[in-house]
Amino acid sequence: MIDEWQEVPDLWDATREEVDKNTKSGLFILTGSSTPAHKGVLHSGAGRIVKLRMSTMTLFEFGNSAGILSLKDLLLDEIQARYVDELNFKELAYLIVRGGWPKNIEANFDDCEALPRSYIDSILESKLLDENNTRYNSNYIKLILKSLARNVSTTVSERSIINDISQNEVDSISRPTLSKYLDFLNNMFLFNNLEPYSLNPRSSLRVKQLEKRYFCDPSLACALLDLTPNKIMGDLNLYGLLFEGLVIRDLKVYAQANDAKVYHYQDYLDNELDAVIEFKNGEWCAIEIKLGLNQVEQAAKQLNKAIDAITRSKNKAPINKCIIVGFGNLVYKRKEDGIIVIPINALKD
């Protein structure tokens, strides 16, 4: 295993050449936290090297999820009711701020925000150079990241980000500069955005094409906004948006393990799905994400409305529809509409 290989980009071609000499699989694992700064052309590695997106740890990997329901179980018609220990208000806030960082596994409630903050600080204090040795302004980086944190779990546009910065910060930023800086930050793997779900080309529904914006870990949004578990618990709306980011982080990891993909859905008739899981066999699952069980009825109406519009417009119906909640002690299927209610700490890959 070679960590941060991008610091010495020639390692890529050296690895490729070594793989050509030895046909065994799994000889090398190259890990990196950014795109390599390399002026030449790197061989693609096609047929030799498989690229995988890394993530911070999920609740299941941390031992905070019982893992009684696998993502692949959502391909089944029958879901058995199962109990799980319920997370409380304080515990879930802690899990969001702590994040999925391995070094934070023993962090306590009062200092769990320290490591994510140090990660943001290390980014802002680094050289901030791209592959062409173009230097990026750390103040602009901070402005953009803070705006994205204020707009986490939304489809905020670049124009809206510029307006948000103008309203909340002393400085401003131009559209070309913002686009350039977002590309740079994407290459640092800081984001975990969801692309829009594509319907049948014959569908009469017009689907919105903006990505839904998330950080690679919800703790980074907390760090940028100087949030602690106590502060999150004082703002239910923000709590819900950050919880959605945690769910998306875990869903994308679980989906990757099952060769599935995660999208979001919004159309111009105000139908919306927080997440769409598309499996390799073409089946898909519709998902809403809500913090508490008291929001399940509202989420069910939104979910059924969106699915009805999608299926009436010449699109395949989902194999299952789910509501993932932060608080709850039971995985169960509602008799009235077949929606599966799943506490987040019941899931695994």
TrEMBL record:
InterPro entries according to UniProt: AAA_14, DUF4143
Superkingdom in the source lineage: Bacteria
Name of one Pfam family that matches: AAA_14
Boundaries of every DUF4143 domain copy: 137-291
Residue ranges constituting the AAA domain according to the UniProt record: 2-62
Transmembrane parts of this sequence: none
Record-linked PANTHER family: CONSERVED PROTEIN, DUF4143 DOMAIN-CONTAINING PROTEIN
Name of the protein in its database record: ATPase
